[in-house]
Amino acid sequence: MNHAGSTSHETKSGQRVLAVYRALRRAILEGALRPSLKLPEDSIGEQLGVSRTLVREAFGRLAIEGLLELKPNRGAFVANPSLEEARDVFEVRNALERQVVANLAGRLTPQQIATLEHHVKLENDSQGRDGPESIRLAGEFHIVLAQMTGNDLLNRYVQEVSSRCSLILAIYGRPHSSECAVSEHRQLIEALTSGDTVKAETVMHHHLESVANRALLERRPKQDLSSLLAPFARSEGLTPS
Amino acid sequence: MNHAGSTSHETKSGQRVLAVYRALRRAILEGALRPSLKLPEDSIGEQLGVSRTLVREAFGRLAIEGLLELKPNRGAFVANPSLEEARDVFEVRNALERQVVANLAGRLTPQQIATLEHHVKLENDSQGRDGPESIRLAGEFHIVLAQMTGNDLLNRYVQEVSSRCSLILAIYGRPHSSECAVSEHRQLIEALTSGDTVKAETVMHHHLESVANRALLERRPKQDLSSLLAPFARSEGLTPS
DNA sequence: TGGGATTTGTTCGTATGTATT
DNA sequence: GAATACATACGAACAAATCCC
After folding, report:
1. What is the pLDDT of residues A108-165, one digit of tens each?
2. Backbone phi, then psi, for A75, in 5-degree steps?
């Protein structure tokens, strides 16, 4: 009936936008689509086998999450957050996750504790081999925590800032910068289980601070030649992409 | 050229989605569109002189902000947050604004202090006459504070939760529930100016707590006749609007 | 500077899915 | 339970703006 048979199974209507959104999200967070890269609606839609309408809608969500930058009449570009924006994101993340632990301290069920400990074990196992798996798990830990609060809004915000942080780490972080994270996660579980709210908040704060420091201080930006060169190009009358 | 000349001045293209978004946002927050009211894309678009595409896009943003609920294949409805959701919102708001004051304490410029004091004066003046003006100003105070941090993400989140809180107050709050807010705002400015971070955080916490309490504890839901009557109407074979 | 090509912004028609009688 | 009616989801074509040569 139609020419683009790429959609398998004739999925239930209304889910395809989400599929596009998730595909792009993964592609960005895993670095397949590099920062500042332009994403034309047409080619993306063609690539994914959907029309521009859906691509545009997915773009909207990704822009709100800060993974894409939408310039009016110019198109969509993969976000390339500055160092200052990166610091802002970590500041907000800190505020949100502080609330998460305040909410959870002393209230974790045995089942939840088991879930968290299982997750940390997975982190530990994947630590040896580098690659995105380890980074993904380290980030997921925080998302699992947020989900356990049962506060949907808090959960959504944490998920958003986590996405942004992943992108930031992809830009500014070094390949395997999650080495000590596992032990810090263990400390956090212990503090939460003991019910000491203040200690849990402190541990979380230090943990996020160290993550931010590893990402933002130890390394200079990698692979942002474009933004580095932009001022020079402009002063020469050139127009950087 | 077209039949619906409602858009004045032939506004620059690309801004019309924002116009739709803002119009609906105001209409909801000012109570013109009551909670649980259904908003068909078609009639809204007709009313505003735009096509369903733009309406749909605006709906998406409003849904993300929690002002609209988008039920798949059912349509868009003005959000009608439950008491539990309301508490969740206030919890997140507390976490965010705590960060705002932590960011601002002792760092306000004289000009910023003047701006804040001017704002409080406006609040005080409008306090006598009831009406939405007073409520709007009280909410704006917090938004102004967030803007002063210079943290765009924090600013956006505070704006979002403020919107949600406005809706919650419209549902659960009593008409002029912002009476003591002015003095609390004055205390906050003083604490911020003195540079005592802990005290500023404490004041903000108490302030938000009292706002939440005034909204969520002292009153039962008002003006949700529609949802109250819905079961009865349905059992009588009627279709509530 | 100007014109053509490309891309976005928008509209509208059709198909599909859900609720109702 | 089937058919009707309605509303959304989607996609293709049109119009406008931008970019590039």
Report:
1. 999 999 999 999 999 888 876 656 788 888 889 999 999 999 999 999 999 999 999 9
2. 120, -170
Beta bridge partners of A76: A39, A70
Element (H, E) at A71: strand A68-71
Q: A38: helix, coil or strand?
A: strand
Q: Which residue is listed with tokens 């002029």?
A: B176
Query: What is the domain extent for residue A41?
Result: 9-80
Distance of CA A239 to the CA centre of its chain: 30
Element (H, E) at B170: helix B152-172
- Whether residue B54 is contained in a domain is answered as yes
* A72 and A89 housed in the same domain: no
Helix (H, G, I), strand (E, B) or coil at A24: helix
Q: What are phi and psi of B68, to 5 degrees?
A: -125, 150
Length of chain A in residues, anyone?
A: 241
What is the amino acid identity at position B223? Q
Chain B residues in contact with chain A using a Cβ-Cβ cutoff of 8 Å? 13-14, 53, 57, 60-61, 64, 66, 72-73, 85, 88-89, 91-92, 94-96, 98-99, 103, 151-154, 157, 161, 164
